[in-house]
Design goal:
By secondary structure, this protein is an alpha+beta fold. The protein has a 6-stranded mixed β-sheet with strand order 2-5-4-3-1-6. The longest helix has 11 residues, at about 150-160. The protein has helices spanning about 20-25, 40-50, 120-125, 150-160, 185-190, and strands spanning about 10-15, 30-35, 55-60, 70-80, 105-120, 145, 195. It has 5 helices and 7 strands; from the N terminus they run βαβαβββαβααβ. It has one domain (about 10-195): ph1033 like fold (Roll).
C-alpha cells in the first residue's frame, strides 16, 4: 500500500470514467492532471479556497455501474482559474467567466494509487465507520466533498482487505484528454447557472 503523508485535509473528487477515469490519470504525464470542469459554486469554493498541496483525495467513479471509490491522489497545486471556461471550443466554456474575474477554479492532482478493488457505493453504505460521510448523506451530489481523516483511512483499509468485490473495470478511453469532466456535478447546475453536477 503506497504511503501518503497524513497531513492536510481529505477530499473526495468525482469523475465520470467514460470521460476521464483513474486509468486515464495513470496514463497522464507524471500521473498528474488539472481537475477542471467543476460548475457548482460550493464545489468551486472548495477548489478555490480550501484544497491545498498535500491534501489527500479519494477518487470516485460516478455515473457508471457500480459507482465506486477507485483510488487515491494528492493535491499538488492549489486552486487557480479553470482555463476551460475561457475556451469557446471546450465543453466547459462559460461566457460569463473571464480571465480578469474568473468564475471557475481547478486544482492539479497526482495519482497515488489505484485500489486493488473498487469500493462500491453499496459497500460504503454498509460500513458503520462511514455512517456520517458526506457522500452517503441523502441528497448529497457535490462533485467535490470534504472527507474526515477517519473515513479516508477506513476506505483505504477496506480497499486492501480480502473482502470479495469486483476489480475496477477498465474504463473506455477518454473521448478528449482536455475535458476530463472531473466533476459530475455540472449537468444539474447548468440548468440554473452554468454547468456542474453536484
Amino acid at each position: 500500500m503506497p504511503q501518503q503523508k497524513p497531513a492536510g485535509q481529505c477530499w473526495l473528487l468525482k469523475t465520470e470514467p467514460g470521460k476521464f477515469s483513474i486509468q486515464d490519470l495513470a496514463k497522464s504525464k507524471n500521473q498528474t492532471t488539472f481537475w477542471n470542469g467543476v460548475r457548482n459554486y460550493q464545489a468551486r469554493n472548495y477548489l478555490r479556497d480550501q484544497l491545498r498541496p498535500g491534501d489527500r483525495v479519494l477518487l470516485y467513479h460516478s455515473n457508471t455501474e457500480p459507482n465506486a471509490v477507485v483510488g487515491t491522489a494528492t493535491v499538488v497545486r492549489e486552486g487557480y482559474p479553470d482555463h476551460s471556461a475561457f475556451d469557446r471550443g471546450d465543453r466547459y466554456f462559460d461566457p460569463k467567466s473571464n480571465r480578469e474575474q474568473p468564475t471557475w477554479y481547478m486544482v492539479d492532482v497526482k495519482l497515488v494509487e489505484i485500489f486493488p478493488r473498487a469500493i462500491s457505493l453499496a459497500e460504503l453504505r454498509g460500513q458503520p465507520a462511514l455512517a456520517e460521510m458526506e457522500l452517503l448523506r441523502r441528497g448529497s451530489r457535490l462533485s467535490v466533498q470534504p472527507v474526515r481523516a477517519s473515513e479516508y483511512a477506513a476506505i483505504v483499509k477496506l480497499a486492501h482487505s480480502e473482502s470479495a468485490a469486483p476489480a475496477i473495470p477498465a474504463a473506455p478511453p477518454a473521448k478528449t484528454k482536455r475535458a476530463p469532466a472531473r466533476a459530475t456535478a455540472g449537468k444539474a447546475q447548468r440548468k440554473t447557472t452554468t454547468r456542474r453536477t453536484k
